[in-house]
Write a structure and sequence with these properties.
It holds the Pfam family SHOCT-like_DUF2089-C. The protein is α+β, with helices and mostly antiparallel strands. 41% of the residues lie in helices and 18% in strands. Strands 2-1-4-3 form a 4-stranded antiparallel β-sheet.
């Protein structure tokens, strides 16, 4: 915990400020940057390198169950997000319209690299429900 946060919490404990004031003060502080812990000591995994999409489906046909396993390097996704900044605005409007027509509600003008990093941080294990009760889709980082 940094010194500024500690001072705010001490003022709160001493009754010099209210909880609401303390919250506003803490929110106004720049975000803390946690010190990286050594991997051997922390027991945490290394940064994810791949986005994996796995689909298990029971087919009604004679072929039997289907299994799709796609592994996309996160560097490719990051590069793609950075490349969207090079697309002219008129082209982005056309691409967004075509994506919307295809049922993909993504606005490429709003896609930012930091948003992708937040998504990767929160995407530990996500199971997506699909309309078919005999299918399961998993999206996760590894």
């Amino acid at each position: 915990m940094n010194e500024q946060r500690r001072q705010i919490l001490e003022m709160l404990a001493e009754g010099k400020i209210t909880a609401d004031e303390a919250e506003r003060l803490i929110d106004a502080l720049p975000p803390e940057r946690p010190e990286p812990a050594p991997l051997a000591m922390s027991g945490t995994k290394s940064a994810p390198r791949y986005l994996r999409v796995v689909v298990h489906a029971e087919d009604a046909g004679t072929d039997g169950p289907s299994r799709i396993n796609v592994r996309v390097p996160l560097q490719l996704l990051r590069a793609g997000v950075r490349l969207t900044s090079l697309i002219p605005p008129q082209a982005l409007v056309k691409v967004n319209n075509e994506l919307d027509k295809a049922g993909v509600p993504i606005d490429l003008t709003q896609l930012k690299p930091q948003q992708l990093e937040e998504l990767i941080d929160h995407l530990h294990d996500l199971t997506v429900d699909v309309d078919d009760p005999n299918a399961k889709v998993q999206v996760f980082c590894e």
